[in-house]
Specification:
This is RND efflux system outer membrane lipoprotein. Belongs to the outer membrane factor (OMF) (TC 1.B.17) family. This protein has 10 helices and 6 strands, in the order αβααββαααβααββαα. By secondary structure, the chain is an alpha+beta fold. It is elongated, with a radius of gyration of 38 Å.
């Protein structure tokens, strides 16, 4: 009958262990826009298609694609993020181990002397017994927390959600890294194109100076014309070091993203200076898909899940907990009898822990966890709304950048025609050199503005891709390991 009572008690405890206290996690509801505003009218149009997770390839630039391929292997922030995932995975396993049976062995030997004036003086010793003796002990201890109300299960759930949040944080790092790389690359190509434009205008200004000097020798031009031509050449040449400095800084910025030392990519990135073209069409998906793709939204959702599970942990702390424990081993005063049958000892039975008075600790802990959960809900809502705002802003910025580029291109063409006409009129003696200086300065400014506008359009598109949350997948291969 005794064994039947024990079995009944264990069976009842296992049934109770199916109870899990606290709220289950559900994604909060939020009103979702149907589509992203009206489709903009531009050369590179956006449409509600599936997001391109390798959007950098749409620029058709082999060098950029090569840099991104190396980024996934070499970026130090991604490697740090991977180690954080490993840390979170280990923490989850530690939490899960609390729900499994535990076993520990201990063995000891001690030579002891009992005090004749101590507690043992109240008992009458056996005749001939000594107060000095050897004591040998050998104990195997086992325990199993039955987790009646889900304290351990909720803890494991919270740690699993934290692992998911850490994974999402690494994906956010990957998205930021590839976006920064693409932005730096576009800016580098823009600076290099500005250098080419400036060098072309410097060469033209040098030709103009020789023309003016020849005309001065022939008595056609004046000292003023020579001074203006010389000043223009010097002014253009003075702008070149600044562009070269920007080029070097951008090359080093790309190198840092790839964990390369300064100037390591200098030869590679100076081999070409062509700005990549814009893709003809850009898929932007739907607002509803954004919450399932953007890493920061997924991280906020996982943090909310963890906070909800922690409420369950705090709730379960109000309820009893039962641990099955057992000890088995031997105890003897003689080493010769240490493993004999009479030396055996054992104990087995459940331990019931019931919270009676905690001085308000349990109530305060539950209130704290509920407040943290409400904060996580608000954080998730703010993150979602901010994600939608960033996409909408990026769509508008991309459309306006293309419109600005078209107008700047028209201005550059008109300034090119004006400079050509002014130069021809000066050669014919119909105007002074001041018109040549003014029209060439306007031409250089519009050509530089056109290059800057092209760079801004490309970097705005990169910002749009970043806001859409696609592109972190290139870094996922490093996550596959023996534990998965």
């Amino acid at each position: 009958m005794k064994h039947l009572r024990v079995l009944a008690f264990v069976a009842g405890s296992l049934v109770l262990s199916a109870c899990t206290m606290g709220p289950d996690f559900h994604r909060p509801a939020i009103d979702t826009p149907g589509v992203w505003g009206p489709e903009p009218h531009s050369n590179s149009q956006t449409y509600a298609g599936a997001i391109d997770t390798q959007w950098w390839n749409s620029f058709n630039d082999p060098e950029l694609s090569s840099l991104v391929a190396r980024l996934g292997r070499q970026n130090l922030n991604l490697q740090i993020g991977l180690e954080r995932i490993n840390e979170a995975r280990s923490q989850m396993k530690v939490a899960a181990s609390a729900g499994l049976p535990q076993a520990n062995w201990s063995g000891s030997y001690a030579y002891r002397q009992l005090s004749s004036q101590g507690i043992f003086s109240l008992a009458e010793p056996r005749p001939g017994s000594s107060m000095n003796f050897n004591l040998y002990e050998n104990v195997l201890s086992t325990s199993w927390d039955l987790d009646l109300f889900g304290t351990i299960r909720r803890s494991v759930e919270a740690q699993r959600a934290n692992q998911t949040a850490t994974l999402a944080a690494r994906r956010a790092t990957a998205l930021a890294a590839v976006s920064d790389l693409a932005t730096d690359y576009m800016q580098l190509r823009g600076v290099q194109q500005q250098q080419a434009i400036l060098k072309s205008n410097i060469s033209l200004a040098r030709t103009n100076l020789r023309l003016v000097q020849d005309r001065f020798k022939n008595g056609v031009a004046t000292n003023l014309d020579v001074s203006q031509a010389s000043a223009q050449l010097a002014s253009m040449s003075a702008d070149l070091p600044g562009l070269e400095n920007s080029e070097a800084a951008l090359i080093n910025a790309i190198g840092l993203l790839l964990a390369e030392p300064p100037r390591a990519l200098e030869t590679e990135l100076r081999s070409t200076s062509i700005q990549p073209p814009l893709p003809a069409r850009v898929p932007v998906g739907l607002p509803a898909d954004l919450t399932r793709r953007r890493p920061d939204v997924l991280e906020a959702e996982a943090r909310l899940h963890a906070a909800t599970a922690e409420v369950g942990v705090a709730t379960a702390a109000f309820y009893p907990d039962i641990t099955l424990a057992g000890n088995m081993g031997t105890e003897s005063f003689s080493a010769a009898d240490f493993f004999s049958l009479p030396a055996k000892q054992f104990s087995v039975g459940p331990t019931l822990n019931v919270p009676v008075f905690e001085g308000g600790r349990l109530i305060s802990t539950l209130q704290f966890r509920k407040a943290a959960q409400r904060e996580a809900i608000l954080t998730w809502r703010r993150t979602v709304l901010n994600a939608w705002r960033e996409v909408d802003d990026a769509l508008t910025a991309y459309t306006k950048a293309q419109s600005t580029h078209e107008l700047t291109e028209q201005a550059a063409l008109q300034n090119q025609a004006a400079f050509k006409a002014a130069r021809e009129r000066y050669q014919q003696g119909a105007t002074d050199y001041l018109n040549v200086v003014a029209t060439q300065a306007a031409l250089l400014a519009s050509q530089s503005a056109l290059s800057i506008s092209q760079t801004r359009t490309e970097t705005t598109l990169v910002a749009l891709y970043r806001a859409l949350g696609g592109g972190w997948q290139y870094a996922e291969t490093a996550l596959k390991g023996p534990d998965q």
